[in-house]
Amino acid sequence: MSQTIVLASNNLGKIKEFNELFRRFNIEVKPQGEFSVEDADETGLTFVENAILKARHACAITGLPALADDSGIEVDFLDGAPGIYSARFAGEHGDNDANNALLLEKLQGVPSAQRTARFHCVLAFMRHANDPTPIIAHGTWEGRILESLEGAEGFGYDPLFYVPEKGCSAASLSKQEKNQISHRAQALTALLEAFKARQLIA
């Protein structure tokens, strides 16, 4: 395997996280922007489809192995919404305040027991654009939606996501605590295990 993996994202936080994970295996993860790769069209209907679309797109343009992440939150009362549309739930991509406000509005008056939700993170790794067996790693994080924002850490839906085992919102956890139990942490652990199983790393 090449010592460089392209991440189908320009998110600096994710780049740092993946590099910390892979550094000991002498693998460097670089953002797709370094290779002038534009964002892929996320036309899939599932996290898995979108992650594969993004990884394949980055592979095709760079000729390098690529890793993509597709994440979001699934609310049971809303039949799984916002799901794959989590980042653009309120219309504009990445407007956290508007997304959180819309989620609260849609759950207004819904009792706590019916506000169950979970974060999903799907990672897709492809060796090349025509890879017939991409590695898929999936992590989930169970919780429920609060009735108001709580905490100042994190991003996205973290201030509304109550973590039962910690007794607080995801946005009230330190970054270190979150990185041990989050959906992304679980997906990363699964990815490493898959890499080892395929002998891509020792």
Explain the overall architecture.
This protein is of the alpha/beta class and 202 residues long. 30% of the residues lie in helices and 22% in strands. It has helices at 12-22, 47-62, 96-106, 175-181, 183-197, and strands at 4-7, 28-31, 66-75, 116-126, 135-145, 161-163, 168-169. A seven-stranded mixed sheet has the order 2-1-3-4-5-6-7. The longest helix is centred in the first third of the chain and has 16 residues, at 47-62. It is globular, with a radius of gyration of 17 Å.
The class by helix and strand makeup works out as: alpha/beta
Helix content: 25-40%
Stretches where pLDDT falls below 50 for ≥5 residues?
Answer: none
Shape: globular
Cα distance spanning the termini:
12 Å
Q: Give the number of helices.
A: 5
Strand order of the largest sheet: 2-1-3-4-5-6-7
The main β sheet shows up as: 7 strands, mixed
* Average of the residue pLDDT scores: 94
Radius of gyration: 17 Å
Elements, N to C (H/E):
EHEHEHEEEEHH
Count of DSSP E strands? 7
